[in-house]
Amino acid sequence: MEHLIRANIELLPPLPQTITDLQCVCRDENTTIKQVSNIIEKDPFLTADLIKYANSPLYGYTRKIHSVFQAVSMFGISTAKGLAIASAVKSSLEIDLSPYRLTTKQFTETANLKVLFCFNGMMIKRSF
């Protein structure tokens, strides 16, 4: 099985340079929201996706998010990085979910609900 995985890993499309930069900067525990925002803003598709996620009714934020900085501030660095990576992977891979009887939209909605659950759990912990 491991041989099969190694043989096929070369077939995967590379992640965008933005994601590589984001992963690199997030390794530093002193990374700031501004640094993460600046990297994400280099990619217009990631920018649009992150702002779209931030304005989703799933998160229940009452004000409209207009910038990457606001979105990263709301989500936190770790969640913003995860959403950016998920967005990049989603845009570069065509996934057949039919064996699971799911559409891509259903899968994305489920993943967003999971992120919301984790996000709300973090917010509850911060309130104590």
What does the model show?
This protein is mainly alpha-helical and 128 residues long. Helices cover 66% and strands 0% of the residues. It has helices at 2-9, 17-26, 33-40, 44-54, 68-75, 77-92, 104-127. α4 (44-54) crosses α6 (77-92) and α5 (68-75) crosses α6 (77-92). The chain is globular and about 45 Å long. It starts with a helix and ends with a helix. The model has no long low-confidence stretch (mean pLDDT 83).
Report the major sheet: none
- Measure the end-to-end span: 46 Å
Mean pLDDT score, rounded? Answer: 83
- Please tally the helical runs, counting DSSP H or I stretches of 4 or more residues: 7
Number of separate strands: 0
How do the SSEs run, as a string of H and E?
A: HHHHHHH
Strand content: under 5%
Low-confidence stretches: none
Rg, nearest Å:
16 Å
Helices and strands: which structural class?
mainly alpha
Gross morphology: globular
Residues in helices, as a percent range: 55-70%
